[in-house]
Write a structure and sequence with these properties.
The complex is a heterodimer of chains A (about 425) and B (about 170). With about 425 residues, chain A is an alpha/beta fold. Helices cover about 30% and strands about 15% of the residues of chain A. In chain A, the strands form five sheets. In chain A, strands 4-3-2-5-6 form a five-stranded parallel beta sheet, sandwiched between helices. Chain A has a five-stranded parallel beta sheet with strand order 16-15-14-17-18. A four-stranded parallel beta sheet of chain A has the order 10-9-8-11. The chains are: A alpha/beta (about 425), B alpha/beta (about 170). Chains A and B meet through helix 2, helix 3 and helix 5 of A and helix 4, helix 5 and helix 6 of B.
Chain lengths: ~425, ~170
């Protein structure tokens, strides 16, 4: 029986030969990730054991990853106390994949997992963060769950009642034009199929554009798959996946490099000609409100944000630094840069990117998520306009319901920083 | 029979339901104060206890899109409201089931604020307009979690069974 990549992974993790879309399975979990919301997971985990006369014990402390990234350093005593509770729990349970705020290893969860080789092709990854879809870039079936569901995973080691999703095959062919990147591809796709276009579905990425894409770019695609409602975004693992894992993530063991069956059954096929794409912008207040940059050029911007789990990787910082070197951020605009991890921060420092960005007037922040979701560092004022490489632009997202957030690639963000208004990087 | 207290559009995100700036608050007992915090009138009316439990919120498609933050489900659940939408985003629906928040998938629902709604077995009757609408049932296994009183209770049973076996 032919299977899509998601069906193959779920069959394997559930101990079955075959599964079909619509089947309900209870796959074993290879990695269970959470961040500061581990505080709520912990609360619910203890509730599960309430009245059972046994000490709560996680199923496998080696398969749980906890990364502090949403509110670091703690913005309030409430957060600090929650973090303290989680640290105590981590120590008492012997959880090893813990990344605290540390300059030698910390960062944003969706960078820390790939960077440390925690994600393998063919594995099942759950995370208490909707952007857990990111890890499909390495050929994992990776999806977001809530805190109570994570508490259940901590107790049992498997996810419960998972419906095998139907798969949408996305075929992207052709060479991207200069100054057009993975971010433009995924924004275009979301604009095309809309915010609920892949609801309860898997997005499986194919085509020559994907095959020649770096893992860093594939992470951008899969990161935003959830913005079309997808359960997972997934790239069939290939020689680039193997290269990334060996060379950049230090993984030396055997990899599962399966492809979907050629006659697998898809819900539908969406084709995109990459060569025709211009830089894209998602306009307020939905991620699927996507336009070509030329349609919004000249819109004045108060704050530019480069970074986050979407576009805070080394090539993103390099692209921004290239445009901003020997230029200045416009004096009516402020620019914040959030590298995705401290490893990237250091590499960008060693390569001179941070110097170029700072000399242009950007402020390089510590790796973290806070600004993206409006909880910490970089909130907007009344009526202000932000242009950001992050992944959401919902009303109120950056901490102010009267502000507007536009989403774009690092190159569009850097070009716009120079002019203080939305600009096309092809014209800089 | 209960009243529709608010009619919302498509793509109501978790940021509308529970803005990120309140995410340091996690416990289900503490989250209701921030329910629809940026819709100030609705938030004030909820906090003032102006709507009895069992009142309806009616929305379009993709309700609950965005974050996996469970506060978005617990904050509404704190008021005992029922959410009727044309469709729900996946993670929000799962969180709602896990916490026992009542959701109704009703692909053609039409209602205005103040309408009286009655829930029957597989239809939703808008008594004000006289029209009735079909409901899409939740998948069986999700119903089982709802019937257990939520995922904590459901998982507790499974953990207990494992402990008894070993």
């Amino acid at each position: 029986m032919p299977m899509t990549l998601s069906e193959k992974i779920l069959a394997r993790a559930s101990g079955l030969k075959f599964v079909n879309a619509g089947d309900v399975v209870e796959p074993k979990v290879d990695l269970a990730m959470s961040h500061e919301n581990a505080a709520l997971v912990l609360h619910q985990f203890k509730e599960i054991y309430n009245g059972l006369n046994t000490e709560p014990k996680v199923w496998d402390p080696g398969r749980i990853a906890i990364i502090f990234d949403h509110r670091i350093p703690a913005e309030s005593s409430k957060t600090a106390t929650n973090q303290k509770r989680v640290r105590d729990f981590i120590a008492s349970q012997g959880i090893t994949k813990f990344h605290d705020i540390r300059g030698d290893e910390g960062g944003i969860c969706h960078q820390i997992l790939p960077e440390n080789g925690y994600v393998r092709p063919g594995s099942v990854v759950v995370g208490t963060d909707s952007h857990t879809t990111t890890h499909g870039a390495l050929g994992a079936f990776a999806f977001g769950i809530g805190a109570t569901e994570m508490a259940s995973v901590w107790a049992l080691g498997n996810a419960l009642n998972i419906e095998v999703p139907m798969t949408i095959k996305v075929v992207i062919d052709g060479q991207l034009s200069p100054h057009v990147s993975a971010k433009d591809v995924i924004l275009f796709l979301i604009g095309l199929i809309k915010a609920d276009g892949a609801n309860y579905r898997a997005l499986e990425f194919h085509g020559s554009t994907i095959r020649t894409m770096s893992t860093s770019s594939r992470l951008v695609l899969c990161n935003m798959a959830v913005e079309a409602g997808a359960t997972v975004g997934i790239v069939p693992p290939d020689s680039e996946t193997a290269r990334y894992l060996r060379e950049e993530a230090g993984v030396s063991d055997q990899l599962w490099l399966e492809s979907p069956d050629i006659d697998a059954v898809y819900d539908r096929v969406v084709s995109i000609d990459a060569a025709t794409l211009a830089p894209q912008i998602a306009c307020p207040h939905t991620v699927d409100h996507v336009k070509s940059v030329t349609d919004v050029e000249g819109k004045r911007v108060d704050q530019i944000v480069i970074g986050s789990c979407t576009n805070g990787r080394l090539d993103d910082l390099a692209a921004a630094a290239r445009l901003l070197k020997s230029r200045k951020v416009h004096d009516r605009t402020r620019m914040l840069v959030f590298p995705a991890s401290w490893k990237i921060y250091k590499e960008a420092m060693d390569l001179g990117y941070l110097k170029d960005l700072m000399e242009a007037g950007a402020v390089v922040m510590n790796p973290g998520c806070g600004c993206c979701l409006g909880v910490h560092q970089g909130a907007l004022g009344d009526g202000e306009v932000a242009l950001s490489t992050t992944n959401r632009n919902f009303k109120g997202r950056m901490g102010n319901p009267t502000a507007e957030v536009y989403l774009c690639s690092p190159e569009v963000a850097a070009a716009s920083a120079i002019r203080g208004a939305i600009s096309d990087p092809r014209e800089i | 029979m209960s009243k529709v207290i608010a009619v919302l559009g498509d793509d109501i995100s978790t940021d509308h339901i529970y803005p990120g700036r309140f995410m340091a608050t996690v416990l289900p007992s503490e989250t209701p104060q921030y329910c629809f915090a940026d819709m100030t009138e609705l938030n004030a009316a909820l906090k003032a206890g102006r709507f009895p439990a069992g009142s309806f919120i009616v929305a379009g498609s993709n309700f609950g899109c965005g974050s996996s933050r469970e506060q978005a489900a617990s904050t509404i659940n704190g008021y005992g409201l029922i959410v009727v939408a044309r469709s729900f985003a996946r993670i929000f629906l799962q969180n709602a089931v896990n916490l026992g928040l009542q959701l109704i998938i009703c692909p053609r629902i039409e209602a205005n604020e103040g309408d009286d709604i009655e829930l029957k077995a597989d239809i939703l009757l808008n008594k004000t307009t006289g029209k009735s609408y079909e409901i899409v049932p939740l998948p069986k296994l999700r119903q089982a979690i709802m019937e257990a009183g939520g995922l904590v209770a459901y998982t507790r049973k499974l953990v207990k069974a494992r402990l008894d076996q070993s």
